[in-house]
Amino acid sequence: MNTVDNELREREEINLAALVSDLARRLGVRVASAECLTNGRISSRMGNSRHAQDWYVGGIVADTEQVKRQVLGVRASSVVSEQAAREMATAARTLFAGDLCVAVTGARDSLGHPSGRVCFAVADKDGVLAESRHLVGPDVASHVTAYALTLVRRRLTAQWQRHRAA
């Protein structure tokens, strides 16, 4: 990936985090994260957004099965599953006293690069939504980060629309 591509991806992540920040602040929603594969990139993007102290309550990097099971209480048979992502999102939302939490889990290849199935979940007062994507390549962490932020933005946008209609 060349420098221009890297800069565009970084800008996309920053812009998504800014949208999340604006919506979360307007709604008074506290957001948390639980992530694997991204080395804390989701948390970093949200935590470095403007006014993050007003809405971002924290995140956990849970790259190992041990952390997923012992800290987040994942009971799913596979820690790379939609069920595991749901459990991570629910547990981290509780752990950080958040109103909304995004979680990501996936597998790494023998070289430590993200490889294959990535599972996402978003938990809030309305429940937990989960989905999977197949992602490979050297820039998976960026794709995962951008998609996780997109899911948070979508969930907050739905809340904003309900808020405006009320």
Radius of gyration: 15 Å
- The level of helicity is 40-55%
Strand content: 15-25%
Describe the sheet with the most strands: 5 strands, mixed
Low-pLDDT residue intervals, each spanning 5 or more residues: none
> Which superfamily, in CATH terms, is the homologous superfamily?
CinA-like
CATH fold-level assignment: Maf protein
Order of helices and strands: HEHEHHEEEH
- How many angstroms separate the termini? 46 Å
Instruction: Give the overall average pLDDT.
Output: 93
Structural overview:
The chain is built from 5 helices and 5 strands. It starts with a helix and ends with a helix. It is globular. It is an alpha/beta fold. It has a 5-stranded mixed sheet, sandwiched between helices. It has helices spanning 3-27, 41-47, 65-70, 82-95, 140-165, and strands spanning 31-35, 56-61, 100-108, 114-124, 127-135. The longest helix has 26 residues, at 140-165. Helix content is 47%, strand content 24%. Helix 2 links the parallel strand 1 (31-35) and strand 2 (56-61). The protein has a single domain, classed as Maf protein (Alpha-Beta Complex), CATH 3.90.950.20. Helix 2 crosses helix 5 (140-165).
In short:
The chain is an alpha/beta fold and 166 residues long.
